[in-house]
Amino acid sequence: MEESIEAVKEIAKTTGQAVKSIERLGRFFATVMGESIDATCGMLADSLKYKRWERQIKLIEKAESLIQNKELSDRFVKIPPKLALPIFQNASIEDDNQLHDLYAKLLVTAIDPEIQTRRTAFAEIIRQLDPIDVKILQAMYTIYENRENNYQENKELYVNQKWFKEHRPPTWTPILKANILDNISISDSVYWESVDNLSRLGLADSYFDEDSIDINTENDNLFTDIVTSHGGYDKLCITALGVTFVKICNY
User: Fewer Cβ in 10 A, N or C end of the chain?
Assistant: First the structure.
């Protein structure tokens, strides 16, 4: 009985699940497999440990390949456990290869001396993303980058415009839903949910249009008021955090 309890605790520790839930799982497998609960719990614990170990080894292999390609072997910077450990822990339970790749890129960008931004939040952000979220964010970034490059190349044409800014945040660039979904085939509900998640994580937001209008009062006094409109799900913008995150994803 003592061994059974220890096996249950071990699986609970490995998976982050409650002991009662693991006991139920162990009893179910014990019933369907015709084995004792301590035997099935032991097998489950071994399987889960191996799975996590396997994903961590794959993470190391991907990271080593990137380090070699970027020629970082002799010039990398050390990173603190606060950043490294969440990457290893989250990557060990990530089954999607695309998201698993992002952990490897995050790890290597953290040791690259040429990368200025090292945010511990990115490991947690990846954990809370689904592949479709990454697709939509990448599409948003591509639209933003193309428009921003065009803006920078032709900004002399805009210098005399009252809205012109030499340096402007990414949130100034409107991104239409139709353009985002140009090469992505999903339902509206999936799109809305993905946008909500990206917004919750601080990677994207609804675009706000702002304009000024002249208003005449009853006394014929003229004054200017600012009018804003909310883009909702149809007109979005990528945030500064979102831009930095995508650059790491594209490393």
Answer: N
